[in-house]
Write a structure and sequence with these properties.
mainly alpha; two-stranded antiparallel ribbon; two-stranded antiparallel sheet; 4 strands; 2% strand
Length: 504
């Protein structure tokens, strides 16, 4: 009963917060519940906090946004029959498809920002009204909200470049603002994430000195892998610094993660755990340094909003053709070493393992690394999914640190980190003779290890900024074509906003 009550409390909060955001960002609306009747108790802050997480989860998964932004533009995949996906692959982002129009609209991200701003403004009032809401609880809540708001901006800068910086809820009323330069946004995001990190615990309800007692009267099992933690902030700070080419800071932030990951219950993952339907991507786990789970027992499974919707087909699920697939040629160019536990072939051209791909010699190789069906079923007649959207994990940060160290000239330490991942996937230690340039070997390992996890497009951009050997991508970078166009609805609503230069 408690679980269902919590769900309905969240749903009410989501509707309340979203109605406010809609008023601010789009059209006039009225709130279903007056705010002065909400911000009174411990239960209100919990509901509002979970509401911001819910909005973030929705922004990532609506229209499969996280993967369409981060995977599809890479050119690594082909689509048999979806013209909208083909348009993204061809960088034709103004094509008239519902999914592209939705992905061009930043309203769902500003819904997070407005809900976060509202929380930051009103939660201190609850501290005065409800003595159960302790100062420590308020501090930890505010740290999470600041992180989530900064994370929303981090995504918007990756997607659109310059965007408006809004740090007040304006009591739900819209105020037109011009776009802010992305360099200022980078600095603001870094400051927010770093300051949030100082107040975030390594884990919740575990006796952490920065989060006292049972968080919202729940034990650690309720929160593990579900909330932003100190390592979440440092991991995202690592990504932000690398994206800017600030590899000294990326090395420093990643060092914090590598030194302290055991404090948060995060560890390296075996290949079997990474690829099992009941493994790493199933439900919530402390190894998810930052992510959003879909829990079968909480009735959170869905047909859409998961990479499986795009990539799975027969024989894994009852679907004739996948929306996305990787060609046999591309697979063989990527997995070039013998005994790779993720994928390799024998002397006859048959796969030694099928954990990353099924039907390799068929018309459509099926990318099946992530395949959480129902509550862990392997029955192909079902097509409802529960995989977590994992935004970063230890292997990601280890390889990002290796990238930073390689660029900084700390070759031996970079190789040690690369070998840490290679060894866990059954590969021999890196050698320049066998594996080529170190930076290229690191990015190739990121492609293999993090395939399907939303990093690939951004990895390609960072690599090009280092290597300068892809003229087509270099031209996109130079002309800001790596960013998305801004939706017509946004431009019509706010006349201070101009279309991104590449898309005018």
């Amino acid at each position: 009963m408690k679980r269902y009550l919590s769900f309905y409390c969240f749903l009410l909060t989501f509707l309340l917060l979203f109605s406010g955001c809609k008023k601010m960002l789009d059209v006039d609306s009225t709130r279903s519940v007056k705010e002065e009747n909400m911000w009174n108790s411990l239960e209100d802050t919990r509901a509002a906090l979970i509401g911001v997480y819910g909005l973030t989860k929705a922004a990532l998964n609506d229209h499969n946004a996280y993967w369409l932004y981060g995977e599809v533009r890479s050119g690594d995949y082909e689509s048999p029959n979806r013209q909208d996906l083909k348009a993204i692959m061809n960088h034709d982002l103004k094509a008239n498809y519902e999914s592209l129009n939705a992905l061009s609209n930043w309203r769902r991200w500003f819904a997070i920002v407005n809900a976060a701003n509202l929380f930051l403004e009103r939660a201190p009032d609850v501290r005065e009204k409800d003595k159960r809401y302790t100062e420590n609880n308020l501090v930890v809540d505010i740290a999470q909200i600041r992180f989530l708001r900064a994370y929303a901006y981090y995504n918007m800068v990756l997607i659109w470049g310059d965007v408006p910086l809004i740090t007040s809820s304006h009591d739900g009323s819209f105020e037109n603002q011009e776009k802010e330069d992305k360099l200022k946004l980078y600095a603001w995001i870094e400051k927010e994430m770093f300051e949030a990190a100082q107040d975030l615990p390594y884990s919740y309800s575990t006796g952490d000195e920065q989060q006292i007692g049972n968080y919202y009267n729940e034990g650690s099992g309720r929160w593990q892998g579900a909330l932003a933690r100190k390592l979440s902030a440092y991991a995202l700070l690592t990504h932000l610094a690398a994206w800017q080419g600030n590899y000294a800071d990326a090395a420093a932030y990643s060092q914090f993660v590598m030194t302290n990951y055991n404090k948060a219950g995060s560890f390296y993952i075996s290949t079997s755990a990474l690829t099992d339907g009941n493994g790493f991507f199933f439900e919530k786990r402390p190894e998810h340094i930052f992510g959003f789970s879909y829990i079968w027992s909480h009735v959170e499974a869905s047909f859409t909003g998961h990479i499986e919707e795009l990539t799975l087909a027969a024989p894994v699920v009852n679907k004739t053709t996948p929306d996305l697939y990787m060609t046999k040629e591309n697979i063989l160019k990527t997995f070039i070493e013998k005994k790779d536990q993720r994928f390799s072939i024998d002397t006859l051209g048959n796969p030694n393992t099928e954990v990353y791909f099924r039907n390799f010699n068929g018309k459509y190789p099926i990318f099946s690394k992530i395949k959480c069906i129902q509550g862990g079923s392997s029955d192909p007649s079902f097509r409802i999914f529960t995989s977590a959207t994992v935004l970063t994990r230890l292997e990601d940060i280890a390889l990002l640190r290796a990238e930073a160290l390689a660029v900084l000239g700390e070759t031996n330490n970079a190789i040690d980190l690369l070998n840490e991942i290679r060894g866990r996937r059954g590969l021999k230690n890196y050698s320049e003779t066998a594996n080529g340039d170190l930076v290229d070997a690191i990015f190739l390992e990121r492609k293999r290890e993090l395939m399907g996890e939303g990093h690939r497009w951004y990895d390609m951009i960072r690599r090009e900024k280092i290597k300068h050997d892809n003229p087509k991508l270099a031209q996109l970078i130079e002309n800001d074509g790596i960013y998305w166009p801004i939706a017509k609805d946004v431009l019509d609503q706010n006349k201070l906003i101009t279309q991104n230069v590449y898309w005018k």
